[in-house]
Amino acid sequence: MTPHRASLTASLTAALLASALAGCASPEPGHGMGKDHPMGMMGGRMAVATLTPTQGNTARGVVMFHEMDGHVMVHAKLSGLKPGAEQGFHIHEVGSCASTDGTSAGGHFNPGGQPHGPQTAAHHAGDLPALKADANGNVDQKFMIDGPSIAEGAASLVGRSVIVHAQPDDYATQPTGNSGARVACGVIAAP
Fold first, then answer.
1. Is 116 a catalytic residue?
2. C-alpha span between 156 and 118 (Å, rounded)
């Protein structure tokens, strides 16, 4: 990558992060966080992953993480997914997207040794809610997760990878959810 392109990519990532995190100040209804909630004050730790497509795929975008009071807000803004489809979405243990098929990211991030599952049951720290693309293959989705952290330690998301899979996650098949090939990968870093 040329120095100019690297600078442009860094600037774009910073702008997308700032824009998306501004959306964290007004979480979706049902999260119990009004204007006086600390999440609305934009304190806490932040991290970001810029996802690029694996070979033969088109999915790309940015996933932002904002930690406050023991919870992590995840905001995924992606394009190039299957129009109208649901696709598996996970944090993987290794911070590498060096392989053309995303396998360099390793398995699901699972410091607690839990089985694979949905957020409402025992699950890997890296098991995330599915992405649901609109009719144009775009996603702009926010949700909260408990357990992982952005702070240093065994539960830290920093230095891990975010993977988008080709198929929906069945949240039952061990240890992967039978969500198929890896179509996009990005390493999580603290800005």
1. yes
2. 20
Full pLDDT tens readout for the chain, 191 residues: 444 333 334 434 444 444 444 443 333 333 333 333 333 335 679 999 999 999 999 999 999 999 988 889 999 999 999 999 999 999 999 999 999 999 999 999 988 888 887 888 778 888 889 999 999 999 999 999 888 989 888 989 999 999 999 999 998 999 988 999 999 999 999 98
Q: Choose, from 66, 123, 160, 182, the residue flagged as catalytic.
A: 182
The fourth-level CATH superfamily of domain 3-26+39-189 is Superoxide dismutase, copper/zinc binding domain (2.60.40.200)
Segment holding 4, helix H or strand E: helix 3-24
| Active-site residue, 170 included | no
Active-site annotation holder among 66, 90, 123, 160: 90
Tell me the residue type at 58. Answer: T
Cα 48 from chain centre:
8
Cα angle for residues 86, 92, 93 (degrees, 5° grid) = 170
Catalytic annotation present for 90:
yes
The residue ranges of every structural domain in the chain are: 3-26+39-189
Catalytic annotation on 60? Answer: no
